[in-house]
Amino acid sequence: MIKFAKVFKAYPKGTLALRDVSFHLSKGEFAFLTGHSGAGKSTILRLIYAEELPTEGEVRVSGFATRTLTRREVPRLRRRLGIVFQDFRLLEQRTAEENVAFALEVTGARRTTIGPKVARVLAQVGLAAKATAYPHELSGGEQQRVAIARALVNDPFVLLADEPTGNLDERATRGTFQLLRDINASGTAVLMATHDLDLVRSANYRTIELQEGAVVFDSADADGADAAGADTAGGAA
Ligand SMILES: Nc1ncnc2c1ncn2[C@@H]1O[C@H](COP(=O)(O)OP(=O)(O)O)[C@@H](O)[C@H]1O
Ligand SMILES: [Mg+2]
Question: Structural domain tally of the chain?
Answer without folding.
Answer: 2
